[in-house]
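Entry 14. Ran structure prediction on the chain below.
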Amino acid sequence: MSWGILCDLLSGVNKYSTGIGRIWVAVVFIFRLLVYIAATENIWKYEHDEFECNIKQPGCENVCFDHLFPVSHIRLRALQLIMVSTPSLLVVFHLAYRESRENHHQQKICQSPGEIDGGLLCTYLISLLLKTGFEIVFLALFYKLYNGFKVPHLVKCDVRPCPNTVDCYISKPTEKVIFLYFLVATSCLCMLLNLSELSYLIFKYSMK
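Output, structure tokens:
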């Protein structure tokens, strides 16, 4: 996939964001997208090949791996990045609609370029709520999949066609836990920024 499309999308909305919103974009670019591309993807890339069980029963290792990791960590994290960024599309569509109306009426609807007002403000607030909601959903999903953000060194598996309980070993579990905690920290930081920007905008425009 092309991450450049996502970068262009967020950069286009950035000029309408507050200072808090610009910090959110920086966090997404530096601490989430770049870390994903540079480190996380490589850590989990060969997870299936490095997953080992102390039995050679055909199919046992595969079903144990599927039982432990029902969803690919790489794909799930990529989906998280996409979902928390795409609410910005609402703002992009609203801006495109505004520009279309301005061209049709040959006059500026908003006198201050880059200023959030009226319907655009509502759209922007909705996008912040959606971003926060997606963060919460994915954090809950990661928590459920990884039993409280834990990657054990040893897993006991008794799923068929394994003839009995077998021991399976996960590669680099400590490193994976560190990056899981980093994922949680950056997600919580983004949620905090979204809620702070939401509160700031509501307070600012309610005072007006």
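The CA atoms of residues 22 and 157 lie 46 Å apart. Will compare against last week's run tomorrow.
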